[in-house]
Structures
1.
Amino acid sequence: MVAVRDLFAASAGAGRQRDVSPLSFSAIHFDGPGAKETLSRDSSRPSDPSVLKSRTSKSYRKSLAQGHNSSWCSDGISTLNQLSGYDVSDSYSDTVRNASQSAAFDHITPCYSSIPKPPDGLTPARALDELCGSSSLYEHTEALIGARVPYDITSVSWPPEQSKPSCLEKSLDGPDLESVIGWRHHILRSDSELHAHACNPCRIKPFVEPTLISSNTTYSKFVEQLFNRGMLTFKQTVGESTLGCFFILKKNQLLRIILDTRYLNGFCHDPPKTRLPSASCFAALESQEGSEIFFCGCDISNCFYHLRCPEGMDDWFSLPPVAPGLLPHIRRKLGLPMHVSVTPHLLVLPMGWSWSLHIAQKVHEFHIARAGVPREHLLADHSPTVPLAEVDAVVAAYVDNNLSLGH
């Protein structure tokens, strides 16, 4: 996203800004003392070792450094082309650049020449440590972002208390609505497949974070919080749970609830292919000459846990049971006996379930369209883009994030 944004910024005022990709990397060179020749991809070293040994002048060593920058720049441009949906195996060396591509190219190449050569002995692991250490985001953080971490009830990210998840039937249309309403046929596998998966001796046992189930009291307080936030209910059921639960660290240092749905996914058909906006969508955008592009984005907090699962499907979303005698006020409220175990059943989309991402994406697109944005103005892979000069804005919806762009 940042790279594509920089391409647009670099090509401002360079005519109609379209077809920025693919960029060609032929004849990349860095001017300076000792740069006697234009260095193209993979041409930074002479083929004859004797020539290499004899050419030890300062100017030649500088030429080698420039050759390194040239090859490195070519790799970067090749990566941008790949992100934009073009075949990385093609060099595009014979491609004639338009004005926007030339402006973007002139913006990219000096960035590589300004970066010094990496220190000797720099391994990929050490490079990652250096990269993470240079950001304040990683300072004083024992666990990397996205790593599984122990349970801490004071740090969990979840919806506010008294939340009521949104009904899917009112947030979808067309085939997606049909799939949700008819989930027993469209989402669940056939009865014979369900039986075979349940009886498979090699079936996966859902993982539960050990610190979450270290005591019955700790676990019961956790599921009580989920109940208070409209995320689950309790039923007097028996049998194996279909969900596990663990936590990963978010950028804001809160804990994201992740459900282990590997066992559950085996009961379900694969979801339809979900078309999301990638870098190729932004590379294909066309803007007005000399005009700025304005961006506005937002994030839907705890998106999956604000969406209610299809009616009746909570029977398939079960967590480990709560021991007898615990949560007496909830038992009385739901009319459940005190002397037996009760099973928490998730009422929202489990983060990790194979269908959750597809459903959340379609709900997001539905509400953007209902807000007045025509569906043809939504960015998605393999869909034509609308020139920014002809519309108020185009919108990229990416599951729980969206980005609006316009002049």
2.
Amino acid sequence: MALALTSSVFTHNSAIPKQYTCQGSDISVPLAWRGLPAGTKSLALIVDDPDAPDPAAPKLTWVHWVLYNIPPTAAGLKEAIKPGELPKGTLEGLNDWKRTGYGGGAPRLGRAVPADRPAPLFPQALRARYRAAGFEAPGQGATRKGDAGPRA
């Protein structure tokens, strides 16, 4: 079985509900994963937006959340998880706001979000990255390409 990452609040290629954005409650989505390769030593999760600020004219990849050294015994993360509730041993890296923790996305440039509709974010921005063997957790905050830690 291949690694699969899912959420109970949106499906693949659908919008992330507004409450998980900066225009809502700005809380993290619940996530679940399965199908880890045998011998997996730890997991890393990088929630990013690869075509910010607008898919029609992408300028950068914006990183919303970085977790690493997640134990392979963890099956997911609950909604609105707090740092003290992360699986034991999990570390946080800096996001593009230069802080730890989840930071919800915003609607694309020039697009208002009606109160009754989800924010137009793209679920492909959620990617689980992991190392099956030999992962060594870098220092906290080493999250960007060129820093001390891997962002594989």
